[in-house]
Amino acid sequence: MFTGIIETLGKITDLQHEQGNLHITVESAIASELKIDQSVSHNGVCLTVVALADGKHTVTAIDETLNKTNLGQLKTGDLVNLERCMQLNARLDGHIVQGHVDQTAVCTRFRELDGSWEYTFEYDAAPGNITVEKGSICVNGISLTVVNSKANSFSVAIIPYTFEHTNLQQVREGSVVNLEFDIIGKHVARLMAR
Questions:
Q1: Are 177 and 121 contacting, i.e. CB atoms less than 8 angstroms apart?
Q2: Does residue 99 come out as left (phi exceeding 0), alpha (psi in the -120 to 50 range) or beta?
Q3: DSSP run (H or E) holding 80
Q4: DSSP state of 73
Q5: CA distance 131 to 185
Q6: What is the pLDDT of residues 50-65, one digit of tens each?
Q7: Residues facing residue 79 across a β-bridge
Q8: What are phi and psi of 187, to 5 degrees?
Q9: Distance CA 73, CA 94 (A)
């Protein structure tokens, strides 16, 4: 479980394909604190640390993960949002995030406002995923508040701190992001559909 509060940015230093798997090596400020077999969120995807060396950690994404997330589009030098799993004795500053990406979305609009930024994302509502005005959404692992919720799109407003400390600074129109819809909203929607 995660909170959607990004700890740090990681930089992709190596990508190695092995059959249907992708081994992703990330350099970050938290690498020295990680342990083998630890769960870490990478752009909202929960992955297991399989190797550690020289301020870097490596995780493996399987074919299923690559097909359902934006991790298959990573390039060396890209930035990823990193968060270690939540501690039970800590505050839940974001919202409950599982690290299980529901689908990807495309940024259809990026606007720089007076001291903030607004992003609009379009997604496939067919699987029953919904957003709720002022509800929570996880974009690339970041816990955000939905504004302008529509049937298959929503917007988020970003403060300078979030812009500077996450990889939203690289997201523009046409960028693909990972979405995890609010777990409570998903359960309520499924119950209502019965």
A1: yes
A2: left
A3: strand 79-84
A4: G
A5: 8
A6: 999 999 999 999 999 9
A7: 11
A8: -65, -40
A9: 27
What are the pLDDT digits (tens) for 21-32? 999 999 999 999
CA of 76: how far to CAs of 10, 24, 131, in Å?
11, 9, 32
3-state secondary structure of 108: strand
On whether the CB atoms of residues 5 and 83 are closer than 8 A, the answer is yes
Torsion angle in degrees (nearest 10) through CA of 99, 101, 106, 112: -20
* Helix locations, the chain, DSSP H: 63-68, 160-165, 183-193
DSSP E strands: which ranges in 140-181? 142-147, 153-158, 176-181
DSSP codes of every residue in 111-125: EE-SSSEEEEEE---
Q: How many helices (H) and strands (E) does the chain have?
A: 3, 12
H/E stretch holding 24: strand 21-27
Tell me how far apart the terminal alpha carbons of the chain are, to the nearest angstrom.
27
Q: What is the rounded CA–CA span in Å between residue 137 and residue 128?
A: 15
Q: Are the CB atoms for 31 and 52 separated by under 8 Å?
A: yes
Phi, psi at 183, each rounded to 5°: -60, -40
Q: What pLDDT score was predicted for residue 82?
A: 98
The answer to whether the beta carbons of residues 68 and 103 sit under 8 Å apart is: yes
